[in-house]
Amino acid sequence: MHVLIVDDNATILETLNGRSGSWKLRLTGTTDSLEALRLLRAGVSSADPFQLVVLDMEATGTDGVALAEAIRREAALDGIRLIALSSLGQQPDHGTLTKHGIAACLIKPLSPSLLFEILARTDHQPKFSYVFEEMVAA
Q1: HSE-CB for 5 with a 13 A CA cutoff
Q2: What is the per-residue pLDDT for 14?
Q3: How many C-beta atoms lie closer than 10 Å to residue 47's C-beta?
Q4: Tally of helices (H runs) and strands (E runs) in the chain
Q5: What is the pLDDT of residue 122?
Q6: Which of 84, 126, 127, 130 has the fewest CB atoms within 10 Å, i.e. the most exposed one?
């Protein structure tokens, strides 16, 4: 699975990089929404397009909801799954996530085992299915 991480904190990318081989992930990271869109567009015409974007809802200079909206506006990017990362107490409401086709919202600090479970579930869910953190954590 080719995954784009959009986050201004290197921790999530480091966490995923440490497990990417065993999880069969190919990772690309960026801190910038415009760069994320450029990478996603380039991926569409490549032999290795992105299947998933993990986006930080509060990254400096990167509004996760605005990025999700931009991704959903482009027909060529429509099949890409989205997972949001948020801080405790800052998570967007279910309606916002559903409206923008975000499959899951994970609370930081991130548990690698929870992330793996979400990645596995998101890979097999219908395009706009919402995965509740509480379901996975149980």
Answers
A1: 20
A2: 76
A3: 5
A4: 6, 5
A5: 64
A6: 126
pTM: 0.81
Which range is least confidently modeled, 27-31, 38-42, 46-50, 73-77? 27-31
At residue 73, the 3 state secondary structure works out as: helix
| Counted domains in the chain | 1
Q: Express each pLDDT in 50-76 by its tens digit.
A: 999 998 887 666 678 889 999 999 999
Phi (first) and psi of residue 52, to 5 degrees: -145, 140
Distance, CA of 138 to CA of 136 (rounded, Å): 6
The two three-digit tokens of residue 29, written as one number: 């990271």
Tokens in use for 52?
């998933």
Locate 115 and state its tokens. 């992330």
Write out the residue range of the structural domain in which residue 98 sits.
Answer: 2-137
Q: Domain containing 133 — which CATH number?
A: 3.40.50.2300
- The CA dihedral of 41, 46, 51, 53, to the nearest 10 degrees, is -40
> Mean of the per-residue pLDDT values for the chain?
78
Distance CA 87, CA 52 (A): 20
